[in-house]
Amino acid sequence: MRGPQRHFEEGTAFLSGPMAGGTRRAPMTWDETSGAVSDPPLEAQETVDAVVEGWSRLFTYLVVASVFGIAVLTPFFGLLLALAGASYLRAGQAHARRHPATPLRLTVGPLTAPLDLIRGVAGTLLTVPYAAVFAVVVPMAIMAAAAVDVQVAPLVAAAWGAGAAAFVLLAAPGVRVPRRHLVQVFIALASGPRRIAVIGALLCVVTLAVLAAAIVLRPTFAPMYELENTIAQELSRFQTSIQQRVS
Predict the structure, then answer these.
(1) Hey, is 27 helix, strand or coil?
(2) What pLDDT does residue 106 have?
(3) b vs e for 171-206, b when ≥16 Cβ sit within 10 Å of the residue's Cβ?
(4) Which residues contact 63 (CB under 8 A, 6 or more apart)?
(5) Which of 146, 153, 86 is nearest to 122 (CA)?
(6) What is the rounded radius of gyration, in angstroms, for the C-alpha atoms of the chain?
(7) I want to staple 109 with a disulfide (CB 3.0 to 4.6 A). Which of 47, 105, 150, 167 is the partner?
(8) At what angle do helices 177-189 and 154-171 cross, to 10 degrees?
(9) Taken in order 234, 229, 76, 146, is the CA torsion positive or negative?
(10) Which of 113, 85, 117 is nearest to 185 (CA)?
(11) What is the rounded distance in angstroms from the CA atom of residue 120 to the CA atom of residue 108?
């Protein structure tokens, strides 16, 4: 009878140990197990990377929105900015494929590779017809609002068409390269919370100011004054024809 009683007392003593006191045993680490279930540092790093990428995508669209607003304000210079920016971003993407993705390489690397710049310009020129469609369709759609007695100035409609064309050059559906490289640039630059906060604050202020100006101010087509008059006349005729058909 002593044997079973001794085993019972030893089992009771075991149960009254750390588990009975309410304390939990520390989770097993890599050194304590033959195979770890997960690697917390790796998961944390993946979470940080996902957060930085998310902010970088937001910053990219803020830049695109700023270029859109500039193109609405000054279509000539805005479209030049969109063409130059899209070409340089395409060149940067081509350059980054062959070199380490450092902030310096991502930003100024294409300047050391003229062939990449030529490739960037060629890729952007292929998207110009795509942008031209929006530059024509958007103003006509706006002027078609005359069918419901909504009067829009022809130059305003044309300016918003230029803004749509600028958006197409940088980030329209099917145009991925400029947007993708700009995201990579922001991932390299926004490597910490402070940098994310600074870049985000600057871009938000600039974007809001540009979009507010695009809505409030009258667009100017300088130095294309003759083209400005031609566009105004053609859109006015289109608006008049819509009104006559409705009435």
Answers:
(1) coil
(2) 85
(3) bbeebebbbbbbbbbbbbbbeeeeebeebeeebeee
(4) 182, 203, 207
(5) 86
(6) 30
(7) 105
(8) 70
(9) negative
(10) 85
(11) 14
Per-residue pLDDT of the chain (247 residues; tens, 9 = 90+): 455 555 444 544 444 444 444 444 445 444 444 444 445 566 666 676 788 899 999 999 999 999 999 999 999 999 999 999 999 999 999 998 888 878 888 888 888 889 999 999 999 999 999 999 999 999 999 988 877 777 888 999 999 999 999 999 999 999 999 999 999 999 999 878 899 999 999 999 999 999 999 999 999 998 888 888 898 898 988 888 887 887 7
Residue 3: its pLDDT value, please?
52
- The dihedral through the CA atoms of 69, 74, 76, 78 has a sign that is negative
Q: At what angle do helices 75-96 and 177-189 cross, to 10 degrees?
A: 70
Question: For 114, what's the count of Cα atoms within 13 Å in the CB-facing half-sphere?
Answer: 0
Q: How many helices (H) and strands (E) does the chain have?
A: 9, 0
Q: Peptide bond preceding 129: is omega within 30 degrees of 0, i.e. cis?
A: no
Q: Quick one: angle between helices 225-246 and 114-143, nearest 10? A: 30
Q: How far apart are CA 122 and CA 87, in angstroms?
A: 8
Handedness of CA 171, 175, 180, 185 (dihedral sign): negative
Q: The tokens 């979470």 sit on which residue? A: 47
For residue 120, what are its two tokens?
């960037």
Residue type, 78: G
Q: Which two tokens stand for residue 26?
A: 């520390």
Structure confidence at residue 63 (pLDDT) = 97
